Amino acid sequence: MILISFLHILAFALIAARMLIYKGSLKRERLDNVITFYTLFLFTFTFTYFEDTIMIYENARLFKSALKRGEIFNYYDFALHNSAYPLNANYNLILYFIFAVCMLPYDICCKLFGEIPLFYGHIWYNILVSAIFVFTGFQFRRLLKVWKTDDKTLELMTVLYYMNPVLLFCTAGFSQLDIFYITLFLEGLILFEKGKSDKACLLWSLPVAMKGFPLLVIIPLILLREKRLAHILKHTAETLSLTAVFHLIYGSSEGWIRNQEHNPHYEKLFSGKFSAQGGSVSVFIILYLLILFICWVSKKESFRTTILCGLSVYVFFFCFTGWLPQYAAMAGLFMVLSLLLIEKPHYFLGVETFFSLAYIFSVWFKYPDVNNTMLLGSKNDPIFKDFILGLTDFKYPLELAMSVSTAAGIFLVIYTALSAKKNENCKWDFPAGYLYLPMMPVYAMIILSAIINYIS
Length: 456
Fold this sequence. Notes:
This protein is mainly alpha-helical. The protein has helices spanning 2-21, 30-45, 51-68, 75-82, 93-102, 104-113, 118-146, 151-162, 165-173, 178-193, 197-210, 215-225, 229-250, 254-262, 283-297, 303-320, 329-338, 345-366, 368-374, 383-391, 397-421, 440-455, and strands at residues 273-276, 279-282.
């Protein structure tokens, strides 16, 4: 734990050096690349989450068994009766196929050299996730070039993409599967912004089949572009095509139905409610429908409306549903893109710092097992949560943190909307330290957690 603390303190030192050595101009420097890849190294080898990947690996292993035995079209029934985690095969089969491919080198090594602890397989998977995260940075740059972004903005936005705390935490940090649908979504968005709607929607059918999150923004984007009902239905059908095929094959199977009953994720859409009409209504669904109506009647489509649409959808989703930590990944992506619309990006980054601090705190408080297993070598008791509760008798630390992240998220949407309306462009004339400001709370909380684990 002392080593982990030292490695993350070194990140602070690199950022301090960046601020002191290059304080005269704001542009992408070599030291920015060093800080970026050093941070990726830290998130890959010292800070990660293994618990979910254990279950995902088990179901990926069963995917290979089902394929060998000719049971692939009965996969969920096969998993129900053969898995060590029988009610956790709730992802689309595509994700288990991808994970099985990712873990092939580990499986081959186990066959050649005998059983190797799965820990090393996790590290290998972390390396792959980080590599794909780096690749999405190149996709991000291609998207900005489609929008004809100038060179200075392109370089600084690249730094901000790699150093976005929410996106980094949800992908390289959390070691989940979200990076796979993000890279496909970005590729589809590039096609969509080039005017190739049919190709984009057909490609988007793959990430939508993996996890439904991209669909939340794809439907509004279709409505921004198309006002003709036939074309709206065509593009929607294209986007849902693979999902429809999946449900035709697996939707009626006992294994799939029981898994969905055990993990009814759709219920989270109704967790943020208020009283109306003598009952309860979902805050998110109301806001989402309003976004759909606005997109449909809007006569202006541009990269500004695309970004604002995505930011609004995913921030509202984060603020008003019962999220799991990885659900915030797409919100992180559109937070970075939103900086293109802000004349004074450092204001946005300052508020985003509060968002990231409150988000990470909420994750570690709401899901203490996440924090306790993310630091390599950490203990299993809810140490971080117990430590914070031991400092104060305040009864609502989680509620306070979630209130801060909600307030910050709503402010960022409103601020971006006002800036987009003014057709403002970002002006890079602020201290370089703001580039790393949103990441600072993440470094600090990791160091604090390592120290708490060491002394307890």
